[in-house]
Amino acid sequence: MAKFENPVIKELLERYRRIWSLEHAMSLMGWDEETYMPSQGVVERATAMAELRTLYQELITSDQFVSLVERASKQEGLNEYERGVVRVLTREITILKKIPPSLNYELTKTSQEAFIAWREAKAKSDFQMFRPYLEKIVELNRQMAEKLGYEENPYDALLDLHEEGLRTRDVRGVFSVLEPAMKRVLDRVTSEGYFSSPSPLEETKYEEAAMRRVNEAVLSLLGYPTDRARLDVSPHPFTINMGVNDVRITTRYEGFDFKRSLFSVVHEFGHATYELQIDPELDMTPIGTGASLGVHEGQSRFWENVVGRTLSFVKVIRPILDRELGFTRAYSD
Amino acid sequence: MAKFENPVIKELLERYRRIWSLEHAMSLMGWDEETYMPSQGVVERATAMAELRTLYQELITSDQFVSLVERASKQEGLNEYERGVVRVLTREITILKKIPPSLNYELTKTSQEAFIAWREAKAKSDFQMFRPYLEKIVELNRQMAEKLGYEENPYDALLDLHEEGLRTRDVRGVFSVLEPAMKRVLDRVTSEGYFSSPSPLEETKYEEAAMRRVNEAVLSLLGYPTDRARLDVSPHPFTINMGVNDVRITTRYEGFDFKRSLFSVVHEFGHATYELQIDPELDMTPIGTGASLGVHEGQSRFWENVVGRTLSFVKVIRPILDRELGFTRAYSD
Predict the structure, then answer these.
(1) Cβ contact (<8 Å) for B32 and A29?
(2) Among the four residues A48, A131, A181, B2, which has the most C-beta atoms within 10 Å?
(3) How confident is the model over A240-298, as pLDDT tens digits?
(4) A115 and A214 in one domain?
(5) How many domains, in total, are found in chain A?
(6) Beta-carbon separation of A25 and B48 below 8 A
């Protein structure tokens, strides 16, 4: 049975395609800024991103679109996918109606410009270069929180953007259990002097081309579909999706400690797999992407830690490491 | 003196920035489709491109924007840059008002999908794979010509899109002189049996990585600014500009006859240089890009043929070829 059958929902999805297309373009622009864009292109990119972000806001909060969403919400007998479409769009509209377009514009533009400054500051290990951008971003986010509104803590408004309904209080609740427990473990480790010794592998240098072949071979082993997905390089690894059939991950090559590059690939593979396994019928709809940052991170860490950091996994990828890097041959599993 | 001083023109450029941003995004989407996009992403990309192309059309032909352009056109004492802005926008609006959005949508979507089909057909040397796409594109362009209107020949309407005012009749006029003259040369060459013999270099194989270093070194020698420009790989070389500070060229690596890769780089360098030398003050305005396809091709062929295919140029790049390819050392200049 088709997921979308209600005629009003179908009309809504048809109209939404234009809004989705802006999202698609902005995802690509974000990916490109972190991977291939020439550095001097930053003002053009930041301007275009801010313009399209506010255009997106204008289209999705337009009277015409909002009334169509309202009409859809009043339909009888919607299935769970159709209700999902209405729910996600209603939430997005509610959020974007609270944010002044000028603030949206400024925060978008500043964030884009900040990335290039951050990259340079990172390369030079010079926090002062990045500081003014960070201060401005924090200030703009404070304004954002006030506009969005909150009950207890300004950060609740921002947290909700990434993890619907999560509050600072909830996060504190989690950490209030974790922190003392971890401290007990740490105390015992310290008092008993029980540390794992660093492996010489953490200092062993590798050739970038060889390491890239390792990453590609591991992804191939994991079933990463190269006709729907890519692996590129960026200063900080990330995953981004342009749609169900175009998902891209990145890693970095520091030239030593190969597991840092490898595990970031396995981590991002987890994010990517989540997006790649979304039902193609949901592609280009408001419910055609991951549910939240938390669910996403659950996927990525599952692959990185539960699968990746095991002896079984090492045994499987061992032949790749030995073949491409060579120096691993001197070590037992 | 600033190029834009009239307040109505300034307001117009401010409003135009959103339209420019869509153009920026579509340029990047086009570049990405030909260079890095995973092949299965084609339907998403084609859909997004068609949506944004029609959104662009809607914004630039909106009553609000059109009346602002009209108001600008009636201003007294505009300088030549300001008049240029009005002229270019008026032309764009006139063209886009004639095209039905549905035709614009279909032609854009078909062209995007056709690219992926063409790439596969090219790789397999199988014209039949591409034929239905080409037929549809021709048919849609015929419709486009009828909508745009023409006096003598349907192709005049399409020619005008690339070279303002040029007619089929003019092109025939050029060829009616060139053709018999070239035929005379050809006849003499044939009757006297005077052919240049093929060089064994045309069959000599090269390593892609070495050839890439050649291309990069030659671009560096020519002053190609890597903080504002890129070189990538695509099945057919092209140049595209996202703005004055982000211009990208491509080449291809067939693995033999190194001059094919090299001269396409020099050719595209000509296109790129034209865009890179545009006054930064014109960036993100309607007059911030090349004037026409003809002027563009004049730039690229100047670099490829007048500069590139000379003994002087070969002497300058010779050390690069000898160092990276090696096999050129066996030849005299």
Answers:
(1) no
(2) A48
(3) 999 999 999 999 999 999 999 999 999 999 999 999 999 999 999 999 999 999 999 99
(4) no
(5) 2
(6) yes
